[in-house]
Amino acid sequence: MTPFESIAKMLIFAGISIAILGGMLLIVGKIPGIGKLPGDIFVRKGNFTFYFPVVTSILLSILLTFIINLFFRR
């Protein structure tokens, strides 16, 4: 196997992973309440908008940690 074959496989895997992640982001964006939880920081002043989903990030982190631990527990 040449070095280019391993790089090609890695690029194909990365592309598929990015496509799956993009699809998941489209689906999550349509779930009501996600990204608009109490504790998320939202500042709008004139034509400047700053949004940082603190609580949403924490909840998603806990959920993903739980799911990953279920699949990869030894």
TrEMBL record:
Origin superkingdom: Bacteria
Q: What is this protein called?
A: DUF2905 domain-containing protein
Which Pfam families does this chain map to? DUF2905 (PF11146)
Q: Which InterPro entries match?
A: DUF2905
Q: Which residues cross the membrane?
A: 7-28, 48-72
Q: Which UniProt keywords apply?
A: Membrane, Transmembrane, Transmembrane helix
The organism's taxonomy opens as: Bacteria, Bacillati, Bacillota, Clostridia, Eubacteriales
